[in-house]
Structures are given as structure tokens and as C-alpha cells.
Amino acid sequence: AAMSRKGVKLLVDSLTRSAKHFNKSEVECLVNLFDTLVARASSQFAGAGFDRTVFRDTLHSAFGMTDDVVLDRVFSTFDKGNSGCITVVEWVEGLAVLLRGTLEEKMKYCFAVYDLNGDGYISREEMFQMLKNSLLIQPADEEPDEGVKDLVEIALKKMASTYLLVSFLLQDYDHDGKLSFEDFEKAVREEELLLEAFGPCLPDIK
């Protein structure tokens, strides 16, 4: 439903405070864009937000994000209420991290994207699922899954080698190959290129 002018002003003021990384005019633009996207969405959400399809199309056209698995996970990180639609608050606050987040915010965001089952760890299987689509061309004599398994092993070794005293492999007493947020954070602080080690879930510089 259309919001009154006063309601929009209060919403913009509130989002400017909560999103932190956008000024008031930028928040106004994002709210206007939100309204445009809601108009494109199915009516099942009664104007409260837009669905996964509109979200994915928007991130694809605006940021060139094309990986289906990654886009679904990004949707889930935005959809804090787990309602199946993106509300205006989720939209603006999510974009604040995606576009202008601090390293700390982006680490938490990327880890949440890669933690497919939400158990607080990135397992070998989750790494496998995330990296599966990143191999575009396979040698004729190699199975695609084997190539992905090799990538996972390389990523695990790289993560472990980026810091000396606390290696998640050394602390992995049951040898299940799980990566905690603390392990991920230490590795990324040592080498920021590892932030998107398991798939592109942030816009590129362009």
C-alpha cells in the first residue's frame, strides 16, 4: 500500500540510522527503487516486498552476479525474517553491507552465504557445492566432480597456510574439514583475497 509522505520520511530517517553506510538521499533512492521492484513482483506479498526471482534478476543486472547457488544464498542472507520476500528494511540494510560494508561486516556476510545449512561451519561438502559451478571447462579425461574436490583441497590448504599458530586443520581433531567463522576470519585478515574463496557473492569494483 502507498505510504504517506510523513511515513516515507520516518522510514527514510530510520533506515539512514540503521543502514549506517548510506546518506539520506541515497536511502530515498533505494526506497524508490524498492517500490519499483515491488511493482514487478507477484502480488502474494501484498506490497510488503519482492520475491526471489525479482531479487536475483536485480543482482544479475546491477552487479553481474550469475551463479544460481550464490544468488539463492545471498537472497537468504538478505531475507532475515525468512518470509520468502525482501522487505524495504532488509533491502536497504542488506545493500549497505553488500556495497559499503566494513571488512568485518563482509566477512560475516560471506561466511553466512557459504554456510549452507546455517550450523556455524563451512564443511567440505558445502565448499564442494559452492565451487561446483566455478569450473567452466574440464579436461576431457577428468570428471568435473574430481576437479571440484581438488579445488576444495587447495582452498583448505590455502586457508590453513595463511596463519601460523591457529590453523583450522591443526585444530580439526575429528578431521572433518569444517571451517569455523574464527578460522575464516583469521585467514581473510591475513589474505583478503580469501574473502570470496568459495564463490563470488560481492559486486566487483565496477
Notes on the structure:
The protein has a two-stranded antiparallel sheet. The protein folds into two domains: 97 residues, EF-hand (Recoverin, domain 1), CATH 1.10.238; 90 residues, EF-hand (Recoverin, domain 1, Orthogonal Bundle), CATH 1.10.238. About 8% of the residues have low confidence. It has 206 residues and is mostly helical. The protein has nine helices and two strands; from the N terminus they run ααααααβααβα. The protein is globular, with a radius of gyration of 19 Å. Keywords: Calcium, Metal-binding, Repeat. One of its GO terms (molecular function) is calcium ion binding. InterPro entries: EF-hand-dom_pair (IPR011992), EF_Hand_1_Ca_BS (IPR018247), EF_hand_dom (IPR002048), Recoverin (IPR028846).
Low-confidence runs of at least 5 consecutive residues: 160-175
C-alpha termini separation: 35 Å
CATH architecture tag of the largest domain: Orthogonal Bundle
Mean pLDDT: 81
**If you compute it from the alpha carbons, what radius of gyration comes out, rounded to the nearest whole angstrom?**
19 Å
**Biggest sheet strand line-up:** 1-2
Largest sheet: 2 strands, antiparallel
Q: What is the class of the largest domain in the CATH system?
A: Mainly Alpha
Shape category: globular
User: What count of helical segments does DSSP give?
Assistant: 9
Topology as H/E string? HHHHHHEHHEH
Tally of domains: 2
| CATH superfamily caption of the largest domain | EF-hand
